[in-house]
Fold each of these.
Amino acid sequence: MPTLPFKPWPTAIAVAITLLIWLAIPLPEGLTSDAWLMLAIFVGTIAAIIGKAMPIGAISIIAIAVVAASGVTSDNPGTAINNALSSYSNSLIWLIAISIMISRGLIKTGLGARIGYYFISIFGKKTLGIGYSLAFSELSIAPVTPSNTARGGGIMHPIMRSIAKGFDSRPEDGTSSKIGKYLALVNYHSNPITSAMFVTATAPNPLTVELISIATGAEIQLSWMTWALAMLLPGLVAILAMPYILYLLYPPDIKQTPHATQMARDKLAEMGKISRDEGIMLFVFLVLLLLWADIPALFLGDSVTLNTTTSAFIGLSILLLTGVLTWDDVLAEKNAWDTLLWFGALIMMATQLNQTGLIDWFSTNMQDWITMMGIGWMGASALLVLTFLYTHYFFASTTAHITAMMAAFLTVGLTLGAPPMPFVLIMAATSSIMMTLTHYATGTSPVIFGSGYLTLGEWWKAGFIMSVVNLAIWVVVGGLWWKLLGHY
């Protein structure tokens, strides 16, 4: 019997949910039939993504087909398919896809691993120092690594495991507590923090930027530099606090690691001098940071300002022209093409939900319910942020979670009087902080959890504690920092 291309039960549930909303639930007052059908398609799509009925790219293709064929966006068939494909002209979608292609160079050239071993060769004399080395290694490559899974799982995790094994800390031997457990936690919890710090540090961040623009009527459009500067101080405080807090929670048996620095030096010696391709990759890395931060404009004026996505295309072009990446490398970067596809479909549906009036309708009803509680905008904002954060226990995809809830929560909070910029920034940060919670929270978590250094209970305990710590840092330090920056 041939294997089905989809999982029967998750698929059946997704289809049933779609039909139930569309056909069985009466059309609420204040909504058009198109808006209700669009909601049914959207919720069914999210259910399919959560249930992993098919790969997310395949689900997105089907969603585009259903939206276009249903005529929910237009009675004209030509206009309907154009509307269904409209989001693929969005530059943010291309920014994340091109950046993922560029980040392939970090792995291919070995530059990412070299950076990690370099930090350890300097700070690795103590276990705590190795923890900070892992954290700052990840931070250093985060701006040009939109796949947080590739960064935490593909680049940093092999380094972490190599060090743990060097100290005879292996799950299969029951020696995880020597050093491996602690390093695995730092390896993972660096990932949500660095993901929150740059638009280009995880794939869903540009989706958040787009949803913020939709919710605010394009009044707030976060640039790469605005995001990075806003997240800089709380992110640095969080990255400084995290290794020490985890060190207290799960103290490693081995505290002194004088051999780690030599181990890292040996690895660097094996790699040899920086190669031509590594040098070019580092050059492109620095050029992109300068262009995304709009540094040339400070000296040469606004005439040299480039769009963030244009800069990414320039970076990839340099890597192709110099042969650091080949076209086959680009074609083989499945994650980039997959992201391009699902990203466009989800933004399209989010846009259509807004245009059909569904988001306004839902937000108004939610706003009325919160208003009845009499908790004011501050209490309402706290409720929205905490609900958004901890409902991630029910999601195995940050993308699905953000798509399902972000737009409505932003609209409600802003309508109830929350200061716009601080509120959208804390919601943006929360969309990454929520990755701390579970062993299925994002693509990086099953990679590191699967290495076996922690029990499920240890992982969830650390995840909950770090979610509280990170949120507190962003609220307190971030709030003061944003005040200093003039955001409210």
Amino acid sequence: MDSWTWGVIVAIVVAAAAVLGVAVWLLLRLVRTRRDLQRAGLPTGPKWIFWGAVLYLVLPTDVLPDPVYLDDIGVLLLALKSMRSGRQDALAAERGDGTGTALRG
């Protein structure tokens, strides 16, 4: 193989490693957020959101093949956003100011 081919292969491997690193970083952030919310006594949202996001990252069956972790990153970001919005709703309800995003009836 010529040097151009090796350069492309190295670039693809570096890009895949960087995307995997972002996915692992988001997973760690999701776990820390859930743990911090539990320690503070705040709701963490449905458990299936957390465990579904973790399983989607770990299991090899994905929308996109596993070397492309963009869909996994999206799922982790949605789970993190869901957990944070649940925290904001709980804090707003605790204050009683009604600024949360949850519908009240």
